[in-house]
Design brief:
The chain has 301 residues and is an alpha+beta fold. It has helices at residues 3-15, 52-60, 168-185, 196-208, 212-234, 249-267, 270-273, 284-299; strands spanning 27-30, 66-71, 76-80, 87-94, 97-102, 129-133, 138-141, 146-151, 155-162. The strands form two sheets. A five-stranded antiparallel β-sheet has the order 1-2-9-4-7. Strands 3-8-5-6 form a four-stranded antiparallel β-sheet, with no helix packed on it. It catalyses: L-lysyl-[protein] + 2-oxoglutarate + O2 = 4-hydroxy-L-lysyl-[protein] + succinate + CO2. Residues 33-179 form the JmjC domain.
């Protein structure tokens, strides 16, 4: 639906006493920042400026995880945890939202209590953390927290998902869980399906948006850009590709250290070792060695 049509619908919905034959429609996941005319609409809060997820997709110039949400009173987002177990932040331009938060692990207690075969560990759930977000206020959603959001007024908000050195290990843990879920789902075809492990990676990417190969490339791109920051700091001139990160030496070193920790786990994972990494440049083991040497040199200063 074009934006102009949605705005017309919204006006008619309000005039119809917040009712419409088309139901209560929510405009979600509008990639305003991918529209050239939207450049400079807002300034990224400094607290959330280390944003590997959007840095990576901006580098590829194919996607992003920055969204506009807008809708009338009564629109809502169902119970979920954010993609890749990313952090997220949300700012209300106008209107109010009611947030219901559950810390990691509590979602297990919300599964169907009538099916003890599927969910034998069902237990009572603690009350959610309830937050009312006013216009002009920002809400931060921690990694892995399930939440549900209701618009109490006609509301417009800006929302970002992001990953950085503080939760990239959560992302890697989530991807391992996703692959296990896929493998379990198609386990009966393991012996009869040629290249079963590769098919699981394909299915995983279709369901989750990323697989082990792309996760390596995600880590590689961020690592190379941080290494360029250190190169720029160490010598004269500007390192190509380092501009626009807004990062200093300490932040770059921290990021490289966290990437190295996760990459060390990635390269020894049996399903990653089944990938054809001969075409990867650099090779995962070589990149890991470079990152570990860089961290060792930085910490010895």
């Amino acid at each position: 639906m074009p934006l102009r049509d949605y705005i017309s619908y919204w006006k008619e919905f309000i005039q119809g006493d917040y009712s419409s034959p088309r139901g209560c429609l929510y405009l979600k996941d509008w990639h305003l920042c991918r529209d050239f005319s939207a450049e400079g609409v807002f300034t990224l809060p400094v607290y959330f400026s280390s944003d590997w997820l959007n840095e990576y997709w901006d580098f590829l110039d194919v996607d992003d995880y920055r969204f506009i949400y807008m809708g009338p009173t009564g629109t809502w987002s169902p119970f979920h945890a954010d993609i890749f177990r990313s952090f997220s932040w949300s700012v209300n331009i106008c209107g109010r939202k009611k947030w219901l938060f559950f810390p990691p692990g509590q979602e297990e207690a919300l599964r169907d209590c009538y099916d003890n075969h599927l969910h034998p560990k069902h237990q009572p759930c603690s009350p959610p953390l309830e937050v009312t977000q006013e216009a002009g206020e920002m809400v931060f959603v921690p990694s892995g927290w399930h939440h549900q959001v209701h618009n109490l007024d006609d509301t417009i908000s800006i929302n970002h998902n992001w990953v950085n050195g503080c939760n990239v290990a959560n992302m890697w843990h989530f991807l391992q869980q996703e692959l296990c879920a896929v493998q379990q789902e198609v386990s009966e075809w393991k012996d009869s399906m040629p290249d079963w492990h590769n098919h699981c990676q394909v299915i995983m990417r279709s369901c989750s948006g990323i697989n082990f190969e792309e996760f390596y490339h995600f880590l590689k791109i961020i690592a190379k850009r941080r290494l360029l920051v250190l190169t720029k700091e160490a010598g004269p001139g500007k390192a190509e590709g380092s501009e626009g990160t807004g990062l200093g030496r300490q932040q770059a070193t921290f990021d490289i250290g966290r990437i190295a920790e996760v990459l060390a786990s990635v390269v020894v994972h049996p399903d990653f070792q089944r990938l054809d990494t001969s075409v990867f440049s650099p090779k995962p083991e070589d990149l890991l060695q470079q990152l570990e040497e860089t961290v060792a040199a930085a910490t010895s200063l």
